[in-house]
Amino acid sequence: MFLVMGITGKAGGATARHLLARGKTVRALVRDRAKAASWADQGVELVDGDWNDAVAIERALKGVDGAFVMLPAVWAPSPDFKEAKGVIASYVAALTKAPPPRVIALSSMGANRTSGLGMITALSLLEQGLRDLASPIAFVRAGGFFENFLYGLQAAQGGTLPVYYDPTSRKSTMVATNDIGAEVARLLTGPMWLGRRIVELGSMVSADDVAAQLAEVMRRDVKAFAVPRAGWPAAFEQFGIPKGRTGPAEAMFEAVNAGWMDIGVEGTEHVVGTTSALEVFATAQKATA
Question: Is the overall model pTM greater than 0.85, yes or no?
Answer without folding.
Answer: yes
